[in-house]
Each structure stands twice: as C-alpha cells, then as structure tokens.
Amino acid sequence: MRIPICPILLLLLFASAPLAGAADLVIAAGAKTEATVVVAADSGRWEKRASEDLVHYIELMTGAKVELAAVAGAGPNLFVGAAALAADPKLQLELNKVAKPDPLIRADAIVVRRDGRSVYLAGTNDDSHYFAVARLLHDWGCRWYLPTEIGECIPSHAELKLGDIDFTYAPPFEIRHYWLSWNGDSTGANEFRRRNFMTETSFAGMGHALAKYTEKLRPEGRSIFNVPLAEDATAKSIAEQLDEEYAKGTTPGISLAIEDGNYVNDSASDIALQAGGGEEHRNRSRAILRRGRQGSRVARAHAFYPEEDSEGSGRGQARLRALSRRARKNRYRGGMLAAEARNRRGRGGSP
Q: DSSP letter at 24?
C-alpha cells in the first residue's frame, strides 16, 4: 500500500546519509522517467531481485516505469551489483576497506555512490547487492514493517531525485536474523529480511540437527526415533562425521540439537536413563539426560583421533570439548527433574 507519510520510526542497522545536493540527479518527475536500472544478465538471485524491486518501488513512488536492462541507457543509470563493480572497478577497493578481513560467518558490506548521472549500488556478495538497493530505497523513505504488502510504507514523490552521495558501510554483526516458528507463515519473509538488512544465515544451535548425523544408523524399516542415543557406537559415528566437516575448515560451529519425538529402542543404556516418576517429568528428564549423555559421549570421542590430525580436526576437538561442558550441565538438569518427579510421586502429589 502507498502511504504519503510514515509516522513510525524504524531503527536501522545501516545509518542514514544526506541525499540532497546543489545539483540533484532527477530520477523521475511528473510520472515520467528516462532512467535505466542496469543489472548483469547473469546476476545472482538477490542481485536480480534487487534490480527488479528498484524498478517496482520507483514506479510505486512516482508512477514512472524505469527500464530494466543489461546495458546503460541514455538517461540516468542506476547500476546494480556486478554491473556497478564492472562500471567502476574502484568500488571493489572501497568495499574491501570496510568489509571484515577475517569474518567467522560472512563479511557483508555495501557501497552507494553517485558520480554525475550514474548511481552505483553494490555489495560484497549477492545479499549485499540487495542491501545496497535497500539502503537507497530507505533513503527515499521506503519502509517495511511486516512481510508482504500489508507491511509496506511507500511514500509518493512528484519528483524523485538524488543528491551527492558516497556511502560505504559494513555492519558490525555478521548474523542479522530472526526466527520463524515451524508453523509460522513464511510468506514474504526472505524479502522482508533483506529489505531490513537481514539474511537467513544462522549459527550452530539454531534448530534440530541431530537427525542428519543419526540417519545412517536408522534401523531398517524404522525411524530416527529408534536410534539409541546413549551408545558409544552412536557417539563414534557422529564424531566421525563431525571430524570430516571440521577438517574442511569451513564449518563455523556444531549443533546436536535433538529432534522432537518419542525415542523408543531396546538399548540398555537408553533404558537406564528412563528412571523417574510422572510421565511429564519422565519425558522431560529423559530427553535432557539423553541429550547430555549423548553429547558427552560425542565430546569424548575426539580420543578416537590422534593429536596430529588436521588443523580442522583440532578445531573440531576444541568445540567438542566445549560441548562436553554443556552436556554435563544438561545431565545435571535432567537429574534434577527426575529427582523432583520421584519426590512428588513419593508424596502422593501429581507430577
């Protein structure tokens, strides 16, 4: 929807910069334009979407339809992504100056620059190309408070113009993300994130992850919920898979978050963890104990690998040792829940 004035203030990750100048570049006026949005023919997913959205929102703001092309036009040109970096190679040097030199996850950075009748919008990666366009749209007053059109706040401009601007920026946070519940509506979520300088990038621990490591141990004709979690063989299998991942040197973290479900098997080790009274507390303590016990076994499994293993394996071992400390806490929590259940049952109270 189109709203002339937006009274709501949004705290942005990307700071504002002035747009007006003595010699403004007019992009559109009187519902007419001679501008062209230029994007490479082989552009990436979000690079291409950025160019399309730039055309779309300029039309919403002004009523003028900007041409989208792979080559520059005769009027003002707004170069997006790789097209901008090709048109002005110095932009890459500016991005390199502000981008994190040794990121753990990702190094986003953007540049928004005007040079005469040319406007350059680019970033260090596919997502960042979109961020650069989003930055310009924010400067023109566009806001997105909720996913889909219901959350759009797009101003009207009789004359859309751009002053002097030379803005290069890298955010301090590598992960800018919000989580959607498994039963939440994800319609428009990916676009909403990028219009507010976020991505789907997450870190270890965000979501269920154990099944991908236990799938190969699944009994024939049964499910992952029948895999024994407290057995040494299970821990060794998981540790071997983790060691392969860390040896590549590209895995930033580890998650062994358990899937929701009812775990049933004939393992004596698993059955031994099923003590406690009251079904609710038994299930809670059972899950925590299993997770803690299994985590401890995987963490100890680094003993299967000699110290002279690859650097990646060494990093994996360090993370697994850290996991062991967390696992001991989980085992303590599970034991406390089981003890509470037994006490309540002994007093004749409900669990």
A: P
